[in-house]
Each structure stands twice: as C-alpha cells, then as structure tokens.
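User: Chitinase, Nonlabens ulvanivorans:
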Amino acid sequence: MDINGRTLSQINFTGNSTDQRISLENLSSGIYFITIQSDLGQKVKKLVVE
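Assistant: Predicted structure for Chitinase:
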C-alpha cells in the first residue's frame, strides 16, 4: 500500500515457511506500508524506498 492508501500488490503465500522474500525493484522512491496477515493476527510495517 502506498502513502495514499492504494494497494499496489497482493501476494498470497502457502505452506509453513516463516521466511518469504518479495522483490522491491519495481517500487519508486517513497513510503509504503506492508501488511502481513497470518492465523496469529496482522502486522503493518512501514517501508521507505530511497
């Protein structure tokens, strides 16, 4: 999600892995928020791309 609240991408992961990697190379400079949801709840993390 960008600073304006627009969802830019949604990726669904399956399996029991606790480590996932996503490519950020297509993001322009700016502030983004990454929402992570699981059976244990939801977390939102701020990401700054310079």
